[in-house]
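Students often ask why we bother encoding 3D structure as a string. The short answer is that it lets us treat folding as translation between two languages. Here is a chain of 96 residues written in the first language.
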Amino acid sequence: MSIRVQIPTALRRLTGGAATIECSAKTLSDLLDDLGRQHPELNRHLRDDSGQLRPFVNVYVNEEDIRFLGGTSYHFQEGDEVMLVPSIAGGGPAAD
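And here it is in the second language, the structure alphabet:
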């Protein structure tokens, strides 16, 4: 089974510039394992020390938040399009 993962610009430096990655995964955990094997540097940006998806990384399947599809129990289907969206914070103090 093949699914396509879209890599956001902020993480492409960790995938050799690849904007999409083809994976074979049944679950979110499988997907993270596969991405980590293909691009080890990406792993620490997606998973915490316990191996769980970092809370600031959002996962969308066919433009639907995976949390509303069953979260970690969701089973990918052939042809699913997955988008990884890390929350990005920053900026400086407000101007007076």
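Translate back mentally: The chain has two helices and five strands. Keep this in mind for the problem set.
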